[in-house]
Amino acid sequence: MDASAPADLTPVMSVEEVNAYLAEVYPQLNEDHTEYRAIAVRPGGCTVRLTAGERHLRPGNTVSGPALFTLADIGGYVCALSHIGREALAVTTNLNINFMRKAEAGNIDGECRILKLGRTLMVFEAAIIAGPDGALVAHATGTYSLPPRGQNVG
Amino acid sequence: MDASAPADLTPVMSVEEVNAYLAEVYPQLNEDHTEYRAIAVRPGGCTVRLTAGERHLRPGNTVSGPALFTLADIGGYVCALSHIGREALAVTTNLNINFMRKAEAGNIDGECRILKLGRTLMVFEAAIIAGPDGALVAHATGTYSLPPRGQNVG
Amino acid sequence: MDASAPADLTPVMSVEEVNAYLAEVYPQLNEDHTEYRAIAVRPGGCTVRLTAGERHLRPGNTVSGPALFTLADIGGYVCALSHIGREALAVTTNLNINFMRKAEAGNIDGECRILKLGRTLMVFEAAIIAGPDGALVAHATGTYSLPPRGQNVG
Amino acid sequence: MDASAPADLTPVMSVEEVNAYLAEVYPQLNEDHTEYRAIAVRPGGCTVRLTAGERHLRPGNTVSGPALFTLADIGGYVCALSHIGREALAVTTNLNINFMRKAEAGNIDGECRILKLGRTLMVFEAAIIAGPDGALVAHATGTYSLPPRGQNVG
Question: What interface predicted TM-score (ipTM) does this complex get?
Answer without folding.
Answer: 0.90
